[in-house]
Amino acid sequence: MTGTGRLRAVVLDIEGTTGSLDHVQDVLFPYARARFASWLAAHRGTAQWRRILDAVADEAGSVQDEAGALALLERWADADVKTPPLKTLQGLIWSSGYADGQLQGHVYADVPPALERWKARGVGRFVYSSGSVAAQRDWFGHTEYGDLRPLLDGYFDLTTAGPKTSPESYDTIARQLGHAPAALLFVSDLGAELDAAATAGWRTAAVRRSDDDRAPVPGHPAVDSLAPLL
Prior knowledge:
magnesium; Enolase-ppase_E1; magnesium ion binding; acireductone synthase activity; Transcription Termination Factor Rho, Rna-binding Domain, Chain A, Domain 1; metal-binding
């Protein structure tokens, strides 16, 4: 972990960091993708439906009917585009899946004790993911270790902080948390995100889990769990 002095808060990525990347790509993404059309049809004419279509139109730069919005959402999902309307719709669909027991958020075994230790030490605990804040809450609220939301202090996403590869996003989070960047630690599996946080003056730690065969992330202290960060 880079940096010295008292650590005020830890901001955690989800995919590949606190939870399995394969679970997101092989379970959550296909689950939502298969239900885009049925969700839009079931909610046609509602305020939620209108907000999704309007957000797709804003992103695309042109007015979209339901069929056009669906085509764009499916295209963005297939390309894993980090766009707010897609992330919002995925979160809405996942929420129903969590509620009826079809889905469960995946977290590694070291995550709950790490959150507990940081909480006991007075270190803030936050999540920053491309997925919507609602999807993040559902993820941590429905795990095999129970509801972990009481161990978290807050959440950030594309709409509240900005893109994860932009240093300005980490400036925004630091301002919202009220701490100097050097007192904040960002933990992720992606080099571009870690580089952005470091550029903004944050401490960083790069995660490579034992089930992750990707190359190490250069330029950042490496860990294979959250345990070395305690």
